[in-house]
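Hey, resending since the last one bounced:
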Amino acid sequence: MNANPVISVNNLTQQFGKSVVLDKVDLKVHKGEILGILGPSGSGKTTLVKAIVGMNSPTEGDITLLDTKIPSLKVISRVGYMAQSDALYEDLSAMDNLLFFAALYGLKGKAAKVRAEEVLKLTHLYEEQKKPVRNFSGGMKRRLSLAISLIHEPDVLILDEPTVGIDPVLRQEFWEKFYELKSTGCTIIITTHVMDEAEKCDRLALIRGGRITALSSPEELKKQSNTSTIEGAFLYFGRSKDGE
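The structure tokens again:
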């Protein structure tokens, strides 16, 4: 395995006006790893992943993704991104949404159609492919958003609270897919505020007030904080950071 991290965030500070949203964040993510970013709403999770995919330009610091400094159009075709809010064309069918986004990544014709059918099957939407998205339930829209993020077979997948608003069965199916992608060498970052999901990650970055308060495996974080739950670890490291 390549020793170089797939994602490297160095001394990242993100400021909007006078508000400091991220404060000197350092983070490295390796090939085939699932990294969870755990924190409450407003802690900086979304700002961090947007910076990693190049949607925000850092106030200070730098980010390297797949050996390329971000922002860069060069690596976009190798990254899949699923936002908190579904960015779908409601008047188009599921298939037409997929073909539209496939074309943005340079996939066209038969190859695009074949790949669209693959991800529709993966997300259990194959039978619904001709339906207008406006008739989809919230869970179906989340599944389609995941399918779109996978359409171009990315090396890196960045998912911003991908399971919000979906039922437990579908959440489990999502995680089965994440593990399958991990086994192929795909590097995954998932933001969440759900503690049981945090347990499923290889490592967790606990974020609070724009700062990473701890970074390790779920088991190690519980051990270091002498607690039996990730919630207990999060509270422990949050308190210790606040007391600095």
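The beta strands are 7-16, 19-29, 34-38, 60-65, 68-70, 79-82, 156-160, 187-192, 203-208, 211-216.

Sorry for the duplicate.
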